[in-house]
């Protein structure tokens, strides 16, 4: 049967859709799983917002050190987006996505400029690059607004490479790249490496000969001056975070440091964070490192052809991952080798694979042009096909697992948002483990955000459930099944709660009691952590499998001989509560 509908005119747009499909997939996953709540380090942005609204914003407020970074330029983005969106942090996630798109475009430009021969082969490698650039394994960064900072340096570096390949004048290239390297430096801790790795491609862009690297004396002097200026400003009053391990640890434990370094590079291909995954990441990282080094040996030592033009950009990109891995190893190996597998690091490590893929393609094309290895060509093609198959299989597995992680992050953020909105009755542990570690500072900052309308929905400041509750009982939201006396004045309530309009488990369960005036007052918050496969089976919906809840509470403070207790399913997206079936009483 002939596929007559696949006419030549249709093949090009279909192939184009395939190439850009990874961006659509991750974009959809971000939209489905993004939650509008400041999380952990993101609460530090509130300090900038406070100073802005008090008309006290200064340069120091924007450039102060947070962990190892000085987030001057990201803070400008946060401030601008906050004004436009009432600080809907999902727009920060959108910026991360757009930065990845710009990086992808830069990789495409470099791909088209440097890969000779078959256009289809070049576009296939670009497709593989997009699979990594938009890989779901970066889930921690995709769904955390402040993490747009990790997408900035590589975007600046790749743009510098594209500028270096352009026909602009040397002075124009210098000014643009110096500005981009400054943005990179004051966006994230590893951004300062841009000054080191960008200069070679910038300096030799006119002649594309390594011997001319130091002939650009004026350019070199200006570049060094700008770098020193950035360096001095960055490290002025710099304080090493006290809770981070010492760099000396890496020197004292070289094998652990080497393991961390290689597993960091191979982390985009791990399936989890267990010991087996560490071995897998280490193996993949070691292979990539060997291939990267071997490619450079071929380029500089074993060939007489001038491959500088085709390879320098990809060498810079690979070096970006290598130096980032080294910096992270020195600063984090003290936390344990498993730390190298963290999802947030994959945005740095994935570019080694992209670099190696392009370097190998360029080298094989050079070998083919010189007529070498003709007899081994079949075996080389088979080996590359096998590697491609393994890559696609591993990427598919990691993507499926990461998509599940993204859903889990969404559920965790929604529960965190429930704790935040109901912080007057939420357990302190819920706030300090899910939202921000300092309870007092969290409450102060949340109150400020609420006062300027930057918390959506707003905080539930009163404990009267009528302010947020829909009292019409409907069994579709769940049941308050049991209330039993556990020990003395301690009671245990249990049941299940869902949000049918969203097709998900409730974000939290509010327990209320009736006072003498007949008002229902909230007094504690329960989390949904109990498996209820019976509920999922009854509704034929797997999303309800963890809809069970159980909460222990003390009778102390509940006035009355017989107190009616009710339970409510809370929707943190709407800031509304829905009464569950079943009312129980606590006797004096």
Task: Please tell me about this protein's structure.
The protein is α+β, with helices and mostly antiparallel strands and 588 residues long. The chain has a domain at 465-587: Sandwich (Immunoglobulin-like), CATH 2.60.40. The protein is built from 20 helices and 13 strands. The protein has helices spanning 8-33, 45-53, 59-63, 72-85, 90-114, 119-133, 139-142, 152-165, 170-185, 194-203, 217-235, 248-252, 254-266, 275-302, 308-332, 346-369, 377-421, 428-434, 439-451, 533-539, and strands spanning 65-66, 69-70, 469-470, 478-487, 490-499, 504-505, 508-514, 520-526, 528-530, 548-554, 562-571, 576-579, 584-587. The strands form 3 sheets. Strands 3, 7, 8, 11, 12 and 13 form a 6-stranded mixed beta sheet that branches. Strands 4, 5, 6, 9 and 10 form a 5-stranded antiparallel beta sheet that branches. The chain has a two-stranded antiparallel sheet with strand order 1-2. A hairpin with a 5-residue loop joins strand 7 and strand 8 (520-526). Helix 5 packs parallel to helix 8, helix 9 (170-185) packs parallel to helix 11 (217-235) and helix 15 runs antiparallel to helix 16 (346-369). The radius of gyration is 28 Å and the shape is elongated. Residues 1-6 have low confidence and may be disordered.
């Amino acid at each position: 049967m002939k596929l007559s509908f696949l006419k030549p005119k249709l093949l090009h747009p279909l192939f184009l859709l395939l190439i850009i499909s990874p961006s659509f997939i991750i974009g959809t996953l971000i939209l489905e799983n993004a939650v509008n709540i400041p999380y952990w380090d993101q609460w530090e942005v509130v300090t900038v917002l406070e100073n802005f609204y008090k008309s006290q914003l200064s340069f120091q407020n924007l450039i102060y050190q947070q962990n190892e970074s000085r987030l001057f330029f990201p803070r400008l983005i946060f401030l601008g987006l906050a004004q436009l969106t009432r600080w809907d942090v999902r727009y920060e996630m959108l910026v991360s996505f757009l930065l990845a798109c710009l990086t992808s475009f830069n990789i495409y430009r470099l791909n088209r400029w440097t890969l000779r021969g078959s256009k289809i082969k070049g576009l296939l490698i670009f497709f593989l690059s997009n699979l990594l650039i938009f890989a779901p394994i970066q889930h921690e960064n995709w769904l955390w607004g402040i993490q747009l900072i990790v997408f900035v340096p590589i975007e600046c570096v790749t743009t510098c490479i594209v500028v270096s390949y352009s026909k602009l004048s040397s002075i124009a290239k210098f000014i643009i790249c110096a500005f981009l390297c400054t943005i990179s430096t004051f966006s994230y801790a590893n951004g300062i490496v841009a000054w080191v790795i960008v200069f070679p491609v910038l300096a030799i862009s006119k002649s594309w000969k390594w011997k001319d690297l130091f002939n650009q004396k004026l350019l070199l002097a200006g570049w060094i001056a700008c770098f020193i200026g950035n360096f001095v400003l960055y490290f002025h009053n710099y304080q090493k975070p006290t809770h981070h391990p010492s760099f000396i640890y890496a020197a004292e434990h070289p094998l652990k440091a080497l393991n961390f370094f290689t597993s960091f590079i191979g982390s985009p291909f791990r399936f989890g964070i267990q010991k087996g995954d560490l071995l897998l990441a280490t193996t993949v990282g070691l292979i990539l490192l060997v291939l990267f080094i071997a490619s450079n040996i071929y380029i500089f030592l074993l060939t007489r052809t001038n491959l500088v033009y085709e390879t320098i950009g990809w060498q810079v990109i690979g070096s970006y991952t290598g130096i980032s891995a080294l910096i992270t190893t020195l600063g984090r190996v003290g936390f344990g080798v498993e730390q190298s597998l963290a999802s947030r690091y994959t945005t740095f490590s994935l570019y080694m694979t992209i670099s190696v893929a392009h370097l190998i393609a360029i080298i094989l094309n050079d070998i083919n042009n010189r007529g070498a290895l003709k007899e081994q060509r079949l075996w080389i093609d088979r080996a590359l096909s096998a590697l491609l198959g393994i890559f696609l299989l591993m990427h598919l597995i990691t993507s499926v697992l990461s998509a599940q992680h993204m859903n889990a992050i969404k559920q965790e953020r929604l529960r965190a948002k429930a704790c935040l909105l109901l912080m007057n009755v939420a357990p302190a542990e819920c706030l300090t483990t899910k939202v921000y570690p300092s309870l007092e500072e969290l409450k102060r900052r949340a109150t400020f955000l609420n006062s300027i309308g930057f918390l959506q929905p707003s905080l539930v400041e009163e404990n009267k459930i009528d302010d947020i509750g829909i009292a019409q009982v409907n069994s579709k939201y769940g049941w308050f099944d049991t209330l039993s006396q556990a020990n003395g004045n301690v009671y245990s309530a249990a049941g299940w709660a869902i949000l049918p309009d969203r097709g998900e488990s409730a974000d939290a369960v509010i327990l209320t009691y009736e006072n003498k005036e007949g008002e229902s007052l909230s007094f504690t918050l329960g989390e949904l952590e109990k498996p209820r496969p019976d509920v999922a089976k009854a509704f034929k919906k797997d999303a309800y499998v963890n809809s069970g809840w159980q909460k222990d509470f003390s009778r102390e403070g509940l006035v009355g001989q017989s107190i009616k207790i009710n339970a409510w399913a809370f929707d943190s997206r709407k800031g509304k509560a829905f009464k569950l079936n079943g009312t129980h009483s606590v006797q004096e």
